Amino acid sequence: MKRITWFMSCLLLMLVALQAKAAVVYVETDDPTFNVYTWSPETFGGWPGSLITDKAELTEVNGKQYYKFSLDGTGRFIIFNKGGVQTQNIPLVDGDNYFTYPIDGDYSKYETTNPPIVITSYTIVGVAELCGQEWAPGLEANDMELQDDGSYQLVREGLTLEAGGYDYKVVGNHAWGLFEVPQSGNQTLTIAEDGKYNVTFTLKLGEENILTAEATEVEPVVIDHTYTVTGEEDLMGESWDLNAVENEMTKIEDGVYTLVKDNLDLNARSYEYKVVRDHSWSWAVPQTGNYSLNIEERGKYKVTFKLTLGETPTLTAVAEKLEEPPVPITSYTIVGDAALTGADWDVNAEANEMTQESQGVYVLLKENVQLTAGNYNYKVVGNHSYDVYQLPLQGNNTLEIAADGKYNVTFKLTLGEEGDNLTASAEKIEEPPVPITSYTIVGDAALTGVDWDVNAEANEMSAQEDGSYKLVKSEVELAPNNYEYKVVGNHSYEAFQLPLQGNQILEIATNGKYNVTFILTLGETPVLTATAELVQEILPDYVLHYGTQGAEWQDKVFIPGEGENEGKLVAADVEFATDTEFGIKYGDTWYAGIPNNDEPRYRIHGDWCTDIPLCTGDDVKNFIINEAGTYTFILTIGEEGNTLTVTGFPITPTVVGDLNADNLVDVSDVNIMVNMILGLSEKTDAADLDHSGDVDVSDVNILVNIILGR
Fold it and tell me: Which residue, 84, 212, 403, 657, is most buried by CB atoms nearer than 10 A?
């Protein structure tokens, strides 16, 4: 009555595999072309299991060469295979396993040098009615005890058993595969009539191990079972519910039970069902798989289930139609995998409603669908409901995509008297984009360390948990300026760049060291940002640039002052030889450009200014040095402006061109002033000005600005 099936055997193998630990397999062979398989729950159904294709290098152990495999513990059995000839299932022990394969060229044979396994316990396993639990090798309550005659024995008392057969066997060390009697298959205890029994199991070890079971009836028992029909929700009201009282069958005579389900609203398709006993899957009809009730057209039905017991129990279901189907179908909608349809099996997706092309023909075109190679499932439903209409009735249709790309997919439904037909075809319209595997920041060298280098590994961004990418450049020394940058993909502007046109700008206002963080956020509209955190402000070098016309110019760096000059900057021991070295006839007139913080260089120069961009506007100062000597220049930086003094006297600005419209300047005055600046003789005309009269203020300003390079 209770027989272990192939399905139960496979299930047990899966459970055993789950308990397996790591094992190392060493194979000695003269033919390395053999295949190795492992059996594990992850590959159940794909017998003989997982193929190991990568053989390790030869490993020497005690002077012999072996191929070594390390199994991660998900498999418990191993099979050698060559040319379709394979060994039997070989159990593995935890740790090292050594094999010689094949033996005398026979690929169905192997030898093992593993040390013998010592069996310390013997446990009876079998069906739950006999053993308390279904096939439980770890159940210590079913361990057998050693007897005086050297045999092992287990007594199970007070078992309520009905007439039939009960499968059992013995295992060693609470594990499958180490020791089993029988080695294959099971023993069966046959009970002639219902009753309460004491069952004695006996194991005799020897050249042939013998396992027996003897049942002694304690008292007769009338067993009254409960039979419950389970199945799909539309058919049974509850989905595969073992405990649904409303689905318990009624006994109408010995060995015959019935159940009636009335006023069921059923669609035109097949419905699965089966019957179980005593609210347990351990006894069911059918034992494996399910029965199917086929409904030809939608309507209201009365369904009658009938169970007939006996040596081979049977279950039937008869559907009686009560009324005609409801409203006709007014819409057809394609449902399926999200990548194919844009909405994951959504019966209400308006974008997937089909359009009537002709009488009985409906179509849907999905354009520009990005698909990867693989199979995609789909079907059609009517009136936005599986219950109203679906095609196919069982399972789904499959659209196979051979290669990645962008496709136009056409679905077509044809209705007909001999049956409806649903198809899908895919037209490839575009190759898939090259995937971006890296993002690199490129930009100005001061900001990135290398000038617009798409291959700079130091500037590759790192993927973050939120899907963004990030790069941090630490303690970058930046002067006040605008710095340009962008991001490229796969080290190429062609693969990806952001922004597509132009560059991003990072504005730096203060000279210093910065931690600069770049963030790339992908999405429908990618965004690239950069933020600069000031770590340390760096005061710029202030340099005094001095010399005479025609001579080599010199620089002097300002350093922090001490004593009365504390808080100021000092350029000491600036040596001026003689007045004549300046080449200026009308006194020694020099210009000191005192820039703002955007360009922190300081210059003193003689008679030209056009090459010095700082000699413009309010930054131009005139001062006079009347004699040769060594001077000290003191620079004071202030919020309201910078001041420059020289040893013994201040450098007083002489403002040029600061004239108002009410004042007129004589031409001779203009000539004198210009000649002083240019170092020319006083008789030289400085500009094309006539000497007939006064000069307008605007002419003076223009002339002065030309001279000063403004």
Answer: 657
Residues 433-468 have pLDDT tens digits of 778 999 999 999 999 999 999 999 999 999 999 999
pLDDT surpassing 70 at residue 470: yes
- Identify how many contiguous H helices and E strands the chain contains and give both numbers: 7, 54
| Alpha carbons 46 and 14: distance in angstroms, whole number | 12
**Tokens describing residue 641:** 């402006």
Spatial distance between the Cα atoms of 540 and 527, rounded to a whole number of angstroms: 34
Considering the entire predicted model, what is its pTM? 0.30
Map residue 626 onto helix, strand or coil.
coil
Question: Which residues face 648 on adjacent strands?
Answer: none
Amino acid at 441: I
What is the per-residue pLDDT for 545? Answer: 62
On whether the CB atoms of residues 249 and 307 are closer than 8 A, the answer is yes
Q: What is the pLDDT of residues 654-664, one digit of tens each?
A: 333 333 334 34
Q: Ramachandran region of residue 368, left (φ > 0), alpha (ψ -120 to 50) or beta?
A: left
Asked if 371 contacts 404 with a C-beta cutoff of 8 angstroms, the reply is yes
Spatial separation of the C-alpha atoms in residues 295 and 267, rounded to whole Å: 7
Which residues, in sequence order, are CB contacts of 166 under 8 Å at separation 6+?
Answer: 1, 2, 126, 127, 129, 130, 188, 189, 190, 191
CB 155 within 8 A of CB 198: yes
Contacts of 370 (CB under 8 A, 6+ apart): 339, 405, 406, 407, 432
pLDDT at 581: 29
Does residue 498 contact residue 487 with C-beta atoms inside 8 Å? yes
Coil, strand or helix at 342: coil
Exposed e or buried b per residue across 287-297, where buried means at least 16 C-beta atoms within 10 angstroms of its C-beta: eeeebebebee
Mean of the per-residue pLDDT values of the chain: 78
What is the per-residue pLDDT for 64? 77
* Percentage helix, strand, coil for the chain under 3-state DSSP, each rounded to 5: 10, 45, 40
Task: Please spell the DSSP secondary structure of 252-319, one letter per residue.
Answer: EETTEEEEEEEEEEE-SSEEEEEEEETTEEEEEESSSS-EEEE-SS-EEEEEEEEEE-SSS-EEEEEE
Amino acid at 454: V
- Number of neighbouring beta carbons within 10 Å of residue 191: 20
Q: Which residue type does 294 have?
A: N
Residues 540 and 511: beta-carbon distance below 8 Å? yes
C-alpha–C-alpha distance, residues 559 and 570, integer Å: 5
pLDDT of 8: 41
Residue 549 burial (C-beta neighbours within 10 Å; 0-12, 13-18, 19+): middle
What would the mean pLDDT of 609-619 be, rounded to a whole number?
Answer: 33
**Pairwise CA distance, residues 36 & 50, whole Å:** 8
Greatest Cα pair distance in the chain: 150
Strand ranges for 492-526 from DSSP E: 492-498, 504-508, 512-521
pLDDT tens readout for residues 28-64: 888 777 777 776 544 434 455 666 655 667 888 766 7
More reliable by pLDDT, 30 or 517: 517
